[in-house]
Design a protein that fits this description.
Order of helices and strands: HHHHHHHHHHH
Low-confidence stretches: 268-273
Helix content: over 70%
Domain ABC transmembrane type-1: 70-254
Protein name: ABC transporter permease
Structural class: mainly alpha
Membrane topology: Multi-pass membrane protein
Distance between the termini: 52 Å
Mean pLDDT: 81
Largest sheet: none
Subcellular location: Cell membrane
Transmembrane segments: 21-44, 81-100, 112-134, 140-159, 192-214, 234-254
Strand content: under 5%
Length: 273
């Protein structure tokens, strides 16, 4: 019985690898890249303080993970990006719904929204520090501002993508504007909204780190600056690895929620990337 079960598992694994070769290719590319990096650095005579080897980065990462202060910095960045993401999403949902449903609001406010988006967000970070101080508030605002626009554009396009025939049919049967919104427009917009959330949650981490670069006493951005000042290049790479993992976790959380809540929809092209 055990042999039969083992053979069945092996067959399933072979089928999965044939249908999804990326399950094998993705880790293979990672292993080959790390090995090449590990042996190419000393082979080409590159100094460790210029480009540390993966083994040195792993040692620095292990040291940081064993330090309680590191977890404090990580917690601050997660909170800043999380609060900023929620704030940006709330503002984008409200404004995007209003713009998509009321033509006058679109013509009045959309030019200002687009003009504000063209301003480099890094240039706004010093202003936020002056206005909101060196604490968490300025980083939350920065994260909210950066994550706002991708969600806004996807909300607008999603609500406008509703099938006109379905809307006309509901209208003929006496459905009100709110009923049309709830039964047609909102379900049609959900795939677009989740595409915007996928970008926005990663951008919120970027916004929090940028805010910490300008002025902070804690957070992963602050820790990244400290390792730079100390010329700890391996430590810098270790912090970058943690930020990458944090972004991947956030990305997969949104993807998991999308598959659970919008399971009927096909993948949509991301708008506002």
């Amino acid at each position: 019985m055990k042999r039969v079960m083992t053979r069945l598992r092996e067959r399933r694994l072979r089928v999965d690898l044939r249908a999804r070769p990326e399950l094998l290719l993705a880790p293979a590319v990672f292993v080959v890249t790390m090995l090449t990096w590990e042996f190419a650095v000393p082979a080409f005579g590159i100094d460790d303080y210029v480009l540390p080897r993966p083994s040195q980065i792993f040692d620095a990462l292990r040291t940081q993970l064993a330090d309680p202060l590191f977890w404090g910095h990580l917690k601050v960045t997660v909170l800043e990006s999380g609060y900023g993401f929620l704030l940006g999403v709330a503002a984008a949902l409200v404004l995007g719904t209003a713009i998509s449903q009321v033509r006058l609001i679109e013509r009045t406010f959309m030019p200002y929204v687009v003009a504000f988006q063209t301003v480099p967000k890094v240039a706004l970070a010093p202003l936020f520090v002056v206005w909101f101080g060196f604490g968490m508030t300025s980083k939350v605002v920065m994260a909210a501002v950066i994550s706002f626009f991708p969600v806004l554009v996807n909300v607008i396009e999603g609500l406008r993508s509703a099938d006109a025939d379905r809307i006309q049919m509901l209208t003929v049967f006496g459905a009100g504007r709110f009923q049309v919104f709830r039964m047609v427009r909102l379900p049609s917009a959900l795939p677009f909204i989740f595409a915007g959330l996928d970008i926005g949650i990663v951008f919120s981490i970027l916004g929090a780190v940028v805010g910490e670069f300008i002025g902070a006493k804690e957070g992963l951005g602050y820790l990244l600056l400290q390792t730079n000042y100390n010329f700890d290049i391996a430590g810098m790479f270790a912090v970058l690895v943690v930020l990458s993992v944090l972004g991947l976790i956030a990305h997969f959380i949104i993807r998991f929620a999308r598959k659970r809540l919008v399971f009927w929809a096909e993948e949509n092209r991301v708008i506002g990337a």
